[in-house]
Amino acid sequence: MLLHFEMVTKNAKHYLWQNLLKMLQISFIRQNVELVKERLSVKQFGNISLVDIVVALDEQVRKLKVETETLQSALNNASKAIGVLIGKGEKEAAEQKRAEVTAHKTTMQQLNEALILAEKQLQEELIKFPNLPHATVPLGKTPEDNVVVREGGIHPSLPEGSVPHWDLIKKYDLVDFETGAKITGSGFPLYKGKGAKLQRALIQYFLDYNTTAGYTEYLPPLMVNEASAYGTGQLPDKEGQMYHATIDGFYLIPTAEVPITNIYRDEMVKEAELPIKMTAYTPCFRREAGSFGSDVRGLNRVHQFDKVEIIQLVNPADSDAVLIEMVLHVEQLLQALELPYRILRLCGGDMGFASAITYDFEVFSAAQQKWLEVSSVSNFETFQSNRMKIRFKNGDGKTQLVHTLNGSSLALPRIVACLLENNQTAEGIHLPKILHSYFGNSSIN
User: Fold this and answer.
1) Count of CB atoms within 10 A of residue 71's CB?
2) Which value, to the nearest 10 degrees, does the dihedral of the CA atoms of residues 412, 289, 169, 256 take?
3) What's the pLDDT score for residue 11?
4) Which strands make up the sheet holding 304-314, listed edge to edge?
């Protein structure tokens, strides 16, 4: 089945991005100042003047490099001249050249120090830029400006007396929030009995579904170092949202995307190996600072949750098609779970820092009468691979950066919430057929 997405138009801007391997490298910014400013404004970036700042810093770096190279040439020539003068017996002239060389070395040291400082300042400013949004990203500032691409599934008619999932959890003794809070703190649920079994069943089903589609399964570390977090764009953007083990400098992962994509950091992959398709189940940890109200009740928003992720490294020429393929992959997963869903194309102001284009999946919570996000599928183009230096050589022998994409397939808490709410009956909670063999039963009673 094909999705009728709005296909990417081959307009001038898109052609430019594809051929220049759109990334926020200084060379791209310098050559496309107005385009970068226009794209950043679509993403509601609040510091457009940063473009002019980095261009000025780049000019300073380039000037210092020219001065350094010119002085190095003069230094080399003066050093050679000393030997020639000594050979001719012109000791006084040789001493003058030695003094000249000494002065050049002092100036060279000063220039090198200035160059190192300028390059450091430039890099510190460059990492503040988010990825530029794709040409098809809608204008907008808030979730209300996102575009509904399509809806699927049937909204259930709940029986009289139906309740939200947090009441069902208590009724069937599936999750113990109070003991989880005692052990750790609020937002760290303790799954038990059939609740733990349902988690395990969903994780196994999701992994089987992904590996059948050609994804290789990994089980990565749950903490990453600073370089890994910078590589995928979590730093500096989401530093306050991650749990930080300060003594060791490690970060608890907010998603498997971080360790899995970093498997190939600083690697030159073979073009024939692309696409590289990876999947992983991990617990995920997010501080969710500032969250409050009805949106955080029950499983709606927690600090630790289970998620299965899919990641692809692809040839840039294929990434638009792969994005649609991954969206279809997640859609079919939700169809198998028999959940009502909708797909949103996020507007510029609601997109993540590293993403060029994102499709969100939401499922309808019948008892709460609201849509809950359960997946984001994103194309990062070269934003992450540029930071991580994940490259390949194309057929012409030219080194290129791969495109990276990932998606939730799926995040469990809100899936569980909707499965419980939408399938509740007087006799118990009837599970979708696809889960019967994984769970070992057709219902929770």
Assistant:
1) 17
2) 20
3) 37
4) 147-152, 341-345, 357-365, 370-381, 403-411, 304-314, 276-285, 216-218
Distance CA 112, CA 90 (A): 32
SS3 assignment, position 40: helix
Dump pLDDT digits (tens) for 237-264. Answer: 888 899 999 999 999 999 999 999 999 9
H/E element, 13 = helix 12-19
* Cβ atoms < 10 Å from Cβ of 267: 14
Using the predicted structure, report yes or no on whether residue 365 has a pLDDT greater than 80: yes
DSSP state of 128: T
Sheet containing 223-224: order of strands: 223-224, 250-252, 244-245
Three-class SS state of 278? strand
| Tens digits of residue pLDDT in 289-343 | 655 555 678 999 999 999 999 999 999 999 999 999 999 999 999 999 999 999 9
What is the C-alpha to C-alpha distance for residues 380 and 353, in angstroms, rounded to an integer? 10
Partners of residue 269 on adjacent β-strands: 392
Alpha carbons 330 and 265: distance in angstroms, whole number: 26
Give, in degrees to the nearest 5, the angle at Cα 78 between 74 and 82. Answer: 175
Q: What contacts 102, CB < 8 A, 6 or more positions away?
A: none
Counting every residue written for the chain, the total comes to 445
Q: What are phi and psi of 246, to 5 degrees?
A: -65, -35
**Of 29, 21, 61, 62, the residue nearest 45 (C-alpha):** 29
In sequence order, which ranges of 127-183 are alpha helices (DSSP H)?
165-172, 177-183
Please give the structure tokens belonging to residue 98: 């030695």
pLDDT (average), residues 24-37: 89
Residue pair 254/353 in contact (Cβ under 8 Å)? The answer is no
Question: In percent, how much of the chain has pLDDT > 90?
Answer: 81
Beta bridge partners of 429: 424, 444
Give the pair of three-digit tokens for residue 110. 């000063």
